[in-house]
Amino acid sequence: MSQARWLLLTSQALLWLQLLVQGQLQLLVALALPGLMVLQLWRPRQWLPSVSMRLITLSFLFFWVAGLTLAPGSFLQGVSNLLWLLIGLQQLEARRHEQHQRSVLMLLLGTGLAGLGAQGLAASLSQGLTALVALAGLHSLETGDQRMLTSLRRIAVLLVTALPLLLASFLLLPRLEPIWNLPVSARSARSGLTNQLAPGEIASLVLDQSLAARVSFKGGGPPAREQRYWRVLVHQRFDGRKWSAVDDPPRPKVQGEFASGPANQSWIVEPSRLLERPWDGRSLPQAGSPLVVSELGTLQNLRFQSDRQLYKLTDGTRSVSWQAEPPRAIDSQLIGNSNPRLQNLGRQWARQASKPEQRLALAREWFQGQDFAYSLKPGELGSTNPLDRFLFETRTGFCEHYAASFSALMRAAGVPSRVVVGYQGGDWQQPLGGSGFLQLKNSDAHAWSEVWLPDQGWIRIDPTAWVTPERIRRSLAESLSKEEQEELIKSTPSWLQGVLTQWDGLDYNWQLTVMGFDRQRQVALLGQSRWQGLTAVVAMGVALLAGLMAVRKPWQSTGDAARKCLDTVLRQLDKYGYSPYPGETLVCFFRRVGSTEEKLASILSELAQSYSRLRFAPSNQAESPSSLLLDMQKHTKHLKDSLRNGAIAAGPVRNNRMI
Amino acid sequence: MPFANSLLGNFDRWKERLQRRLSGSGDRLLLRHHNIYILPTAFGVMWLPVIAITYVLGIQTQSNGPVLLALLLLALLLFSPFLTYRNIVDLELRCLEPVPGFADQSILVPIIICSADSRQAIKLRWLNRGQPLSSQQIEQFPAGSRQLELPWQPPGRGQYLPGRLLIHTTSPLGLFCCFSYWQPPVHLFVAPACLPGPVQELQQPTGTHYGLAEAVAEGSDEFQDLTPLRPEAGLQRVSWKTVARGQGWYSKRFTCEKPVATWLSPVSGLPLERALEHVCERLCQGLAKGEQLGLLLPGGCEIHPGEGELHRRECLRALAAVSAPLRQL
């Protein structure tokens, strides 16, 4: 197998590996691609006639369609998988030069499609490596280079040469808005917050230390820790056992909910199955953004985005309208015969206080007066009346227990309430040489309550903070028992934490500055200019020129500088009709020219001596090769100057005619 | 009408100039900017939609990964013509006189390629009809000179100018093709194909200037005579018998049979081409065996008997040129 085929196979393997890690492959494609690669290694073309190839292709296409029908994803995901499958088939079938070239094109297109689903630093590096190897395969194909490393090196040099042009075009070419809207895909999701809350069913909460989101704040650090509530979902439906969101998605409230000022929060959210994005409940998306604020106070994505999403928010300068949205019937709904002790307590507060604020105060007093404990291992509460069992028997739980039971108590007391799920806290990261950002992990997931007070609207109440203020003011670890603290610390080795923090910082800055470079950032960087297109073209031209001049022949190694000098001299003399006779030595030739052109005699003699010494003198001579080479270059320049100044009176000749 | 005539005249001049440029004649070809042409390849054209699709996907999904990839491919596309041009510029080609070939075989045309820099994937191909369509490729070309033997398929017996040679390269990425034309000023002599058959052989051709060839020559096979001994003759050939008889010092003279010089001529009664093929076959076989052969060809062409490679080439050229004027393909 030729080196070009090896390189293309390697590129295909890299593409498959990254797609597998990112979970972008359908089952059939994930299994078929390595099989096709193994077939390529066995060189089946000799025993696989073209009819069999067609049968294989048709079979794969049939199974792809079947797989798509059984487990439908987004249109783009289906098409991408089809292309990745076709890459394998194309490479298996490729025999001629043109077919291999088509394989390279498909590999590059496949790499581009892989970039839609993953934009992290690791994914980008992996995609870059795939493209590099594919291009090296193309280079090897075109030049017949039999050394894999040579092709890789030459393409790497070529890419470095093209880098200024790439940067100029990336920064300066006017960024376009999407031409048409793609449908939202809710299926391309992975782990994250769930859309229901059933605290009684969780015996032990396993903390997921994976990244959930990162946010940086322009012109300062993050808000105080007790103010770091990032809302995502609102649960209104309560069936006595679990809280959940209403079936119909809330109607987004679009009008008047966009900011006009510059953005001061930059969010990068990891893949999630939810359409809702974390936010602080006060800031606003910018006009033209695919995000809108719903009536429930959730930030919703309306347009298809790649899995990892970047968005910017602006601090709101006035009270946001979702807080003033009056409660609906579902916000007071309570199942009649569930959790009777909870309902009795709520009714008791309703009898004791007429105003919602007073009932709220009673609730706070009650929670703080009981011996509640915060634990990630509360044990199961059973399927019947779980909240009664929590409030009056176990009194041990985590945020979900407190938020769920408090909200139910408020409804029983006649105060509309709901449960909000999102993130609380987060760790401030300050990478070396980069701007700091707040990192939210899935272990920062938190649940709290919102109650409706007629004078204030929906306000946030966090009963967990009443019971264990450390959970909110400091960290989760501070609120746990010693055993649980040890387990938490074990799950994040400190030696790795520093490395991961720096990597996260690099990744965050990569995504913010490169992957997040959009039209708005371009305008902020360059300003609004009518001449942007022209500027881009000029800058690209300059970059192209600089690249060409910086590396004259990046894929070649000339090596012999002395020979280049000599060739220059010979070319110059050739212009004046002097060229060596067959068999004439350099010294004889220069002597012959010198005898005719006296002004050049000494220069030519020096040149001949330098060249001869450089080529034939023993290495122990006093003169170093570099000094001889410098001499030669100096004499060459001198000769050119002399010729330009008319050292040969007859002037240059062309085609045996004087000009 | 004068305007039309002037226009036609200008067109003819332009056409002639274009033809002259495209033919690229000269005893050597130095590839410079004025004789190098650049066009995108089919693959280069297919590269554009890939850029467009990747860019649109990136724009549609607001993902900068595909946008960066598309711009990188665009940058490579913009660099490519310059890189390909630099792979071929300043290349010098010279053509040596090729050995005469036969009508049923390819002729190897020796071409010397010189370059001060290393090159990659330089391809050469004859453009005439009937020539192989595939190019001969020099994959790695280090700085210096190198001789390449380029096969040329003759259309039949005769003497030809080989026609236009295409020198091209698509390195490093195959997106653009830089090419140039050259018409090497060498004559290709194509002798008839070798076919066994009757040939007219004359050992003592009539005619005033041929004369009789001597039947014997100096050698070592048979004793012929005695000659007075000269000091440089050595002792091996001393006639010791005459010395013993006191008849003086003599050295023995030996002779061997001189090879018979044969003149080959096409037999009458056969078509000329067929008869020449028989002559060619007889000539090649005979010269390979060391015979002294000459040619008497129609049109008064005579090649005196001789032997050796140079003589063989001369004979083949003569056979190629029988009733066949120089043809330009």
The percentage of residues in β strands of chain B lies in 25-35%
Give the CA-based shape of chain A: elongated
N- to C-terminal separation of chain A?
A: 56 Å
Most strands sheet of chain B: 5 strands, antiparallel
Overall pLDDT of chain A, averaged? 80
Q: How many helices of chain B does DSSP assign?
A: 6
Strand elements of chain A, count? 21
Give the fraction of residues assigned to helices of chain A.
40-55%
Largest interface: A-B, 67 and 49 residues
* Whole-angstrom Rg of chain B: 32 Å
Question: Rounded to an integer, what's the Rg of chain A over CA atoms?
Answer: 36 Å
Number of distinct helices of chain A: 21
Structural class determined from secondary elements of chain B: alpha+beta
Shape type of chain B: elongated
The biggest sheet of chain A amounts to: 6 strands, antiparallel
Low-confidence stretches of chain A are 184-191, 554-558, 654-659
Entry summary:
Chain A has 659 residues and is an alpha+beta fold. Chain B has helices spanning 2-23, 42-60, 64-88, 240-244, 272-289, 309-321; strands at residues 28-30, 37-40, 92-95, 101-102, 107-115, 119-126, 136-141, 144-152, 158-161, 165-169, 176-182, 188-191, 199-202, 216-228, 250-257, 261-266, 292-297, 301-306, 326-328.
